[in-house]
Design goal:
329 residues, Aminopeptidase, single chain, disordered N terminus, 13-stranded mixed beta sheet, alpha+beta
Length: 329
């Protein structure tokens, strides 16, 4: 993660490249932002360290807005896939007191410049950012930067585990925990054909993120399940945890069934197995998210999930032309 030194405001914040030892400052910044918008626990310092140690930012760049010892902002740009096409993803978190244009442009100008550089390298014409629907903090910022809201959103759902339905597997199928890390290629091999309409489904989990989930303290093999017929696996699910054990919140990160095995209730059986396991653990809730264009939303509704605005995201996109400018004092 290298970049030229960024611009400075006289006596004010300055921007520098992200380093692995920024995990504590970034984790605290994100936790403050979550508290401000009414969210629960964010990623812990240790989990942030684990993330920063992975290759999640490979090919991209991260930056920290720093004011003395204080982490005033954080952002990144990286090449990714979005709605079935190559894209440049931007992430941005700004601390209260650092959200005026003259201040945040110290960070965002660097992000947009690097994003445009990556776009040229990868032949991409636009950049995207996603914000929680309850986030009124960053929307004015991204609009001022020239982003426009996309008509597709990411719907968030929550299940409080009070009433868990029973959905048995179809006859002839078995369900078991995946053996990680040796069966990581098996899970990833399923995700490719299972996500056969990425314009509506989104992108499947990467090997880097699957390793991150499995490497968290408290990981349980029940978090990655496989459904098999005599010829091999035909479906799977991946569950992430914001906090493990009693009172924890777990997210169904991914649910996939091969096209030839759909319509038999495999997806419902997988989700209900997850819900039953979480109820036995006295977990607080299960959450899930999917594109508003994904028909899988009806499956989750039938199984008792209900909309959760805290986990619903709005997407914003920006054509990569000249960066909007503000008058500098």
């Amino acid at each position: 993660m290298t970049a030229a030194p960024g611009p400075r405001l006289m006596g004010g914040p300055e921007v520098r490249p992200l380093r692995e030892n920024d995990a504590r400052g970034v984790a605290m910044l994100v936790a403050d932002y979550f508290a401000e918008i009414g969210m629960g626990q964010s990623m812990s310092v240790e989990q942030m360290r684990q993330l920063f140690a992975t290759s999640w930012l490979e090919g991209g760049a991260g930056f920290v807005l720093e004011h003395g010892p204080e982490t005033a902002g954080y952002g990144f740009v990286r090449p990714t896939r979005w709605k079935g096409a190559d894209s440049i993803q931007l992430g941005l978190t700004l601390k209260r007191g650092y959200r005026d244009p003259e201040t945040y442009h110290v960070l965002t100008d660097q992000l947009l410049e690097k994003g445009s550089e990556l776009a040229g390298k990868h032949g991409v014409r636009s950049m995207s950012i996603h914000l929680r629907s309850i986030d009124t903090v960053h929307v004015p910022v991204v609009l001022e930067l020239g982003f426009q809201e996309h008509p597709v959103s990411m719907l968030g759902f929550r299940h409080d585990l009070d009433d868990v339905p029973a959905r048995p597997l179809p006859q002839g199928l078995t369900l078991r925990c995946a053996r990680l890390p040796e069966e990581t290629p098996t899970v990833l091999g399923l995700s490719g054909p299972a996500f056969d309409d990425r314009e509506r489904q989104g992108e499947p989990v990467t090997g880097t993120y699957l390793s991150f989930v499995a490497g968290k303290s408290g990981f349980d093999p029940e978090q990655v399940l496989l459904v098999e017929n005599p010829d091999g696996p035909v479906g799977y699910t991946v569950v992430d945890a914001t906090s493990h054990g009693k009172g924890g919140c777990y997210g169904i990160l991914e649910l996939g069934v091969l096209p030839g095995s759909r319509g038999r209730g495999i997806g419902s059986a997988l989700v209900c197995r997850v819900l039953g396991w979480l109820k036995e653990k006295n977990a607080r809730s299960a959450v899930a998210g999917m594109f508003s264009s994904n028909i899988a939303a009806t499956l989750f509704w039938r199984l008792g999930f209900r909309p959760d605005p805290r986990r619903t995201f709005r997407f914003f996109v920006r054509d990569l032309g000249p960066s909007p400018t503000v008058e500098r004092r």
